[in-house]
Amino acid sequence: MDQHNWSWTLKRSFPSRRNAHLESMEEILGQLTELGWSDRELFGVQMALEESLTNAIRHGNKCDESKHVAIECKVSPERFWLRVEDEGPGFIPEHVPDCRKGKHLEACGGRGLMLIKAYMTTVEYNDRGNRVTMEKVRGEQSSELMDVSS
Amino acid sequence: MPETKRIKASDSGGVTVVTFADSKIIDEDEIQELGQELYDLVERHDHRKFVLNFSHVEFLSSAALGKLISFEKKVSTHDGELILTNIRPEIYEVFAITKLTKLFQIKDDEADALAVL
Fold first, then answer.
1. Is the Cβ pair B97, A148 closer than 8 Å?
2. According to the model, what pLDDT value does residue A145 have?
3. Which of A21, B1, B4, B117 would give a disulfide with A53, using CB separation of 3.0 to 4.6 Å?
4. Inter-chain touch A19–B28, beta carbons under 8 Å
5. What is the CATH number of the domain that holds B46?
6. Which GO terms describe its molecular function (chain A) (predicted)?
7. Does residue B17 fall inside a structural domain?
């Protein structure tokens, strides 16, 4: 990944206020548009940005404005790479119930992680569970997305 | 029809047809407002049959999906009916990934929905 020729990078942190992520998100989407990413591809990237950043603000830092969300992003005509870290205690992704099954289908939350996984090529969490790293390689589809596209 | 900011509601033969004011439903304050406006149609104005027309909607977050699920539950508990229509392929994909296609009744367009309500 480090050898990749990135066109643009962003590193910033912001206080955990509702909607504080929107400006960074628009900036990243604007860069990808200039690099030729299609509307359809941008939809998936926006979903991953929206869900990971609001998870960090809302669930990680509990909307505590004294805590920050750190964001690092790299983009190129071929790849989108994102790392989001909050100051919360972290969580265990495997313990989050599958939103598609049983009573969880009707739950009002719990879909963000599934959507990130569906739209990204790779998604990884650190051991503490307060940092997520994801990458989208253009032209590669996750199994979740292939299941619904077929 | 009541004054609303996030939705536009109209009557079609006893069915309330709702369109959305925002093309991107992501702002959390706006999502709260949207939910309240939908709930009010059921609780304060006694509407029971709904078509939610998504033709203007280009993007929605999982928080917005949560609000739609709450609305669906509210309509059901009041013995009402709800159909979603005019969903563009990208948005339909979100419903399909999360299997919400099993929870919501979805039709291609308003005419299809009105025919069965």
1. yes
2. 86
3. A21
4. yes
5. 3.30.750.24
6. ATP binding; protein serine/threonine kinase activity
7. yes
Residue B1 located in a structural domain? no
Contact with chain A for residue B29, Cβ under 8 A = yes
pLDDT tens-place string over residues B2-13: 789 999 999 999
Say yes or no for a CB contact (<8 Å) between A111 and B27.
no
Q: How many domains does chain B have?
A: 1
Q: Which residues contact B85 (CB under 8 A, 6 or more apart)?
A: B51, B52, B53, B54, B55, B106, B107, B108, B109, B110, B112, B113
Residues A52 and A134: beta-carbon distance below 8 Å: yes
Structural domain that includes position B30: 7-116
pLDDT along chain B (117 residues), means of 10: 90 97 95 97 95 97 96 96 97 96 97 97
pLDDT in tens, B18-28: 999 999 999 99
Instruction: Write down the pLDDT at residue B26.
Output: 94
Hey, how many other C-beta atoms are within 10 angstroms of the C-beta on A64?
Answer: 15
Let me know if residue B97 belongs to a domain. Answer: yes
Rounded Cα distance, B66 and B53, in Å: 17
CB contact residues (below 8 A), chain A span 108-147, against chain B:
108-109, 111-112, 114-115, 118, 144-145
CB within 8 Å: A111 and B28: no
Q: Is residue B2 part of a domain?
A: no
The residues in B 78-117 lying below 8 A from A, measured between CB atoms, are 90, 93-94, 96-100, 102-103
**Domains detected in chain A:** 8-149 (3.30.565.10)
